[in-house]
């Protein structure tokens, strides 16, 4: 097990190093720092967002701005620490003005995300918002319809969730997001 974790860490470090030097799509030009993602190599749960925002671009770390602080609070409420999950995005460089990433940017960046998922191979993958859900599952239905529903593929449970930024802007979504995350906790303990 220790060796597995060491190999996973090495793969994740290699991916992160590639991301930091990457110029495969136009987002490379405007970025301050690329944001590969971070967390435990042995994480049983992974969170995938849309793309770095202003704070993330400045610090080179995912979900460190307001949406990230809110996500951390939600995790704590269900007894999870940020350090024990893995957090990343579908694109690793900030789209200017926080616009949605373009299809060609998502496609260029996807191998990094696929590599991270394959290396960690968690039990549960949370897809934060519509772009992450569309990119990973190819499901483009409204979040209002699919949030919290488990989609099992190759033994991994994928769960579309409202993006924490959406729940910050629309307060009524916050309890829904919390309830969805709360229901994930038993899925983790039963498999590990
Ligand atoms: N929103 C995202 O989708 N990702 C981040 O890393 C921060 C905010
Ligand atoms: Fe490379 Fe992804 Fe950044 Fe585009 S967004 S430059 S593909 S790391």
β-sheet strand percentage = 5-15%
Can you tell me the CATH class? Alpha Beta
CATH superfamily: Uracil-DNA glycosylase-like domain
Global outline = globular
Ligands bound here? uracil, iron/sulfur cluster
Helix proportion: 40-55%
Low-pLDDT sequence parts: none
Structure in words:
Helix 1 (2-21) runs antiparallel to helix 5. The protein has a single domain (2-189), classed as Uracil-DNA glycosylase-like domain (Uracil-DNA Glycosylase, subunit E, 3-Layer(aba) Sandwich), CATH 3.40.470.10. The model has no long low-confidence stretch (mean pLDDT 95). The chain has helices at 2-21, 27-30, 54-59, 66-77, 103-120, 130-137, 143-146, 164-169, 173-182, 185-191, and strands spanning 38-39, 45-49, 86-89, 124-128, 151-153, 156-161. It contains 10 helices and 6 strands; from the N terminus they run H-H-E-E-H-H-E-H-E-H-H-E-E-H-H-H. The chain has a 6-stranded mixed β-sheet. With 192 residues, the chain is of the alpha/beta class. It is globular and about 40 Å long. Strand 5 and strand 6 (156-161) form a beta hairpin. The longest helix is centred in the first third of the chain and has 20 residues, at 2-21. It binds uracil (URA) and iron/sulfur cluster (SF4). Uracil is lined by residues 49-53, 56, 62-63, 65, 67-68, 89, 165.
């Amino acid at each position: 097990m220790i060796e597995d974790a060491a190999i996973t860490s090495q793969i994740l470090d290699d991916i992160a190093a590639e991301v930091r030097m990457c110029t495969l799509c136009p987002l490379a030009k405007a970025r301050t720092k690329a944001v590969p993602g971070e967390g435990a190599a042995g994480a049983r749960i992974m969170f995938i967002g849309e793309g770095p925002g202003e704070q993330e671009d400045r610090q080179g770390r995912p979900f460190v701005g307001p949406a990230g602080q809110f996500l951390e609070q939600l995790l704590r409420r269900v007894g999870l620490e940020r350090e024990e999950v893995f957090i990343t995005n579908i694109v690793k460089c900030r789209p200017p003005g926080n616009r949605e990433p373009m299809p060609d940017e998502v496609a260029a960046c996807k191998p990094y995300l696929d590599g991270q998922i394959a290396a960690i191979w968690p039990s549960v993958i949370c897809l934060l918002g519509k772009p992450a859900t569309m990119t990973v599952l190819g499901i483009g239905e409204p979040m209002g319809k699919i949030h919290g529903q488990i989609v099992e593929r190759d033994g991994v449970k994928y769960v579309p969730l409202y993006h924490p930024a959406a729940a910050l802007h629309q307060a009524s979504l916050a309890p829904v997001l919390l309830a969805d995350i709360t229901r994930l906790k038993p899925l983790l303990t039963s498999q590990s």
